[in-house]
Amino acid sequence: MRPFRIEFPQSDLDDLKRRIDSTRWPDEIPGVGWDRGVPLGYLKELAGYWRNEFNWRAVETRLNEFPQYLTEIDGTTVHFMHIRSPEAGALPLILTHGWPGTVAEFLDVIGPLTDPAAHGGDPADAFHLVIPSIPGFAFSGPTGQVGWDTDRVARAWMELMRRLGYDRYAVQGGDWGSPISLRLGLADPAHVAGVHLNMCVTFPPPDPAAMADLDEADLARLTFTARFAQDGMGWQKIQSTRPQTLSYALTDSPVGQLAWIAEKYKEWTDSDKVPEDAVSRDHLLTAVTIYWLTATAGSSAQLYYESTHLDDDFVRTWAGPWPLTMPVGVASFPKDAVRPVRRFAEGILPTLSHWTEFDRGGHFPALEQPELLVGDVRTFARSLPR
Question: Residue 62, SS3?
């Protein structure tokens, strides 16, 4: 394990500005808003802010406040943050992001989770945090290998925690972090104390009787899921079938990368008219800039191909069942891209012991509602056997 700092050369930032300046803009059908993708006027204005006002160096400085390392696991480089709590008895916790996320989305929860006493909390709720970048994503860079599916990532996390000397730890994740966390629980049951998810994928069982007596809220979740499957999964189909073809556009055009990610921050968050209703503009641009500077648009999409290349792969990757032996907790946020039904979750998660439904927040709770996420992780951890 060797220390790591984020330090991109100024020439990379100058090149980014030059490319934004030379963008070839498409036309647009007037009056369609977000229905057909990111509106032209919105994206032009956001690109202008990115080019002229967004301060990447300030982001670098903040990220570099936390200890970061690189290590080699299973033939690839893995980047991770490792923040030890001042509380000696803190529970180790590994946090896993998803797509289009990065380790930066956890910046606002690191302090409260590692040092609750300094943030008005109970020292007994402290965690030692391990926050890795998924292989192929951002600072973990391209793997250059086939076969990096969610199971392989989980086994890499198991090895990472072993190298750090943690023989008992909890895991937490959303988006890709959800199946990775569940598979980590399957791979390392002797050491994983509990699994907490902020995204849980459920499908109706084949027996129609399972649909009986669902309340209006659950029926609304099913209606949303059906609509999302029909209209909202274009990105998944492309990234899980032709990631290499897509990578040429996203790696060459910063505005293309910006649109590809900004759309998800609009559709998957608790926003109204623009993504910034839910997530700050600088948070959004931090994610976009990390993908751009590391040139990992294509390599991050490979996880889709490896894990959900075909329809049955998609179901198997996300829907379980998950025969875990340790407790599982779920925090469900109402504007997430995935809206689970608890009754169905209980059928695939036999050790489900904690379930919270919030009235606000979406797919990126560490950015949108950090206090709610921190509180739920603390509550779940208190229930784990010591």
Answer: helix
- Distance in angstroms (rounded) separating the CA atoms of residues 144 and 216: 47
Amino acid type, 236: Q
pLDDT digits (tens, 9 = 90+) for 37-65: 999 999 999 999 999 999 999 999 999 99
Reported in sequence order, the residue ranges of 32-134 that DSSP labels E, i.e. its strands, are 68-73, 76-83, 91-96, 127-132
Check if the beta carbon of residue 197 is closer than 8 Å to that of residue 331.
yes
Measure Cα distances from 375 to 51, 120, 121 in Å: 36, 12, 10
User: How distant, in Å, are the alpha carbons of 86, 87, 95, 105, 368 from that of 115?
Assistant: 7, 7, 16, 18, 21
7, 40, 293 from 11: Cα distances, Å? 12, 28, 11
Question: Torsion angle of alpha carbons 6, 10, 16, 20, nearest 10°?
Answer: 140
Question: How many CB atoms are closer than 10 A to CB 49?
Answer: 12
Q: Are 246 and 20 in contact (CB under 8 A)?
A: no
How confident is the model over 180-207, as pLDDT tens digits? Answer: 999 999 999 999 999 999 999 998 888 8
Residue positions annotated with a catalytic role: 175, 304, 363
What are the C-alpha distances in Å from 385 to residues 94, 115, 147, 194? 18, 21, 35, 9
Residue 144 has which token pair? 């250059």
- For 330-340, what is the mean pLDDT? 96
Q: What is the pTM for the complete model shown?
A: 0.97
Q: In the numeric block, which tokens belong to residue 149?
A: 């599916």
Rounded distance between C-alpha atoms, residue 18 and residue 10, angstroms: 12
**Residues, the chain:** 386
C-beta neighbour count of 65 within 10 angstroms: 11
Which tokens sit at 152?
């392989």
